[in-house]
Amino acid sequence: MSVSGLVIPLLLSAVAMYGMGRKVDVYGALTHGAEEGLTVLLHIVPSLVGLLTAVSMFRASGAMEWLSGLFAPLLELLGLPPETAPLMLVRPASGSGALAVASDLMSVYGPDSYIGRVAAVMLGSTETTFYTIAVYFGSAGIQRTRHTIPAALAADLTGFIAAAFTVRLFFGPGG
To answer: Quick one: pLDDT at residue 156?
Structure first.
């Protein structure tokens, strides 16, 4: 067995022995933590179900394609390939949806194309904003997001523009 295969068992054993040495009820602490985790999960799940349903409806309705066409001139003005519009629309809401869109872009244009590279960098430089807000705000019990969503979406837009600029800088516009 390799050293990496022993890391987790050794770490768990060390934590248990440390807790026993400090006279801590390790099992009680574990079950209490699991109970708190399930309570947080109960607060988060409704937001996530709503979010994932909305993303599926958005894609199935054809609204994503319509918005992509609508935003194409603006994206070209910003230096973003219009083909990445569906990725930019889905990424703030769904990581798996964005991965599927990026996978489609790479299968059509190739992973080493300009569009494929921009899509890959966009995935790595932006966040699933609504998912993250739903998880963190839901677990903390925060109802109103106030300036969080506009600021986070502005950060996503900055990440999208920076992704296209960086790929163009290092690889050129032709890929």
So the answer is: 94
- CA distances from residue 68 to 85, 86, 131 in whole angstroms, order as listed: 5, 6, 22
Angle at 138 between CA 43 and CA 151, to 5 degrees: 165
| pLDDT the model gives residue 158 | 94
How many angstroms separate the CA atoms of 131 and 95, rounded?
Answer: 8
Using an 8 Å Cβ cutoff, are 47 and 127 in contact? no
Residue 108 CA to residue 100 CA, distance in Å, equals: 12
Q: What's the predicted TM-score (pTM) here? A: 0.68
Report the distance separating Cα 102 and Cα 110, nearest Å: 10
CB contact burial 129-161 (16+ within 10 A = b; e otherwise): bbbebbbebbeeeeeeeeeeeeebeeebeebbb
97 token code pair: 């949806």
